[in-house]
Structures are given as C-alpha cells and as structure tokens.
Amino acid sequence: MMQLSLFDTLPQTPPPADPARAQHGHQWKTGNWHHRNHHGFYQCREGHTGNWRFYVPWFSNDDLSCTVNVIDDTGTIQHRDDVPIDAQGRITIRGRKYGRAFWDH
C-alpha cells in the first residue's frame, strides 16, 4: 500500500492537458522542472536558471529535420514533425535558428 502512494506523488509525463497551457507565455512547475509555452512550442528547464530549451524527441532519417514538442489548443503536449535542422545542429523555430544550447534530445 505504501508503494502505491509513493508513485501517486511522482510527476506525470507528459503532464495532463490544461487549457491554460495553450496560452503563449504560460508557465508551470513539476518538481524542480519549469515548463512554458513559447508561441505554441513546449520548452523546459531545470531549476530557475539556465536556458529555456525546446525538446526534440527524435530526428528524421533525412538528417535535415527533426520533431519537436508543441502545445495544442487544449494544453496537451503533441509533436510537430519536419522542423528544419542545419549542419551546425541548429533547429529553426518560427524563422529563428536555435543552437544546441537551446534544445535537448
């Protein structure tokens, strides 16, 4: 019985849908992790410091694109395919290139 209550306190991954998360700039916390909606793209960082980072769950076979996590209109984390990635390892989000310091895999 004690084990069941222990697992109830662990953060859920991905977090459950929350309509507030669909708004640009909305932030929330799970343990020591901070999450936010950046123009519909999911970002997170550990603690209160450091770069906000996009999350790349996988890369395409063509070595030219990848998939990043996004937040849909219901606040649910989804995936967006075909996000460009260049030879220097920079992903392009909303026309801006982000280097390796701004995304995790």
Our count of helices gives 1
Structural domains: how many: 1
Please state the average pLDDT score: 88
**H-E order:** HEEEEEEEEEE
Q: Please list the strands of the largest sheet in the order they lie side by side.
A: 1-2-3-4-10
Reported for the largest beta sheet, the result is: 5 strands, mixed
Strand content: 35-45%
Number of strands: 10
Radius of gyration: 15 Å
Structural class: mainly beta
Assign a percent range to the helix content. Answer: under 10%
Q: Return residue spans where pLDDT drops below 50 for at least 5 consecutive residues.
A: none
> What is the first-to-last residue Cα distance?
36 Å
- The shape, in one word, is globular
Summed up, what is this model?
The chain has one domain (2-104). Helices cover 7% and strands 42% of the residues.
Outline the structure in words.
The protein is mostly beta strands and 105 residues long. It has a five-stranded mixed β-sheet, with no helix packed on it. The protein has a three-stranded antiparallel β-sheet with strand order 5-6-7, with no helix packed on it. It has one helix at residues 2-8; strands spanning 27-30, 33-38, 41-46, 53-55, 58-59, 65-71, 77-84, 91-93, 96-98, 103-104. The N and C termini lie far apart (36 Å). The protein has one domain (2-104). The mean pLDDT is 88. A hairpin with a 5-residue loop joins strand 6 (65-71) and strand 7 (77-84).
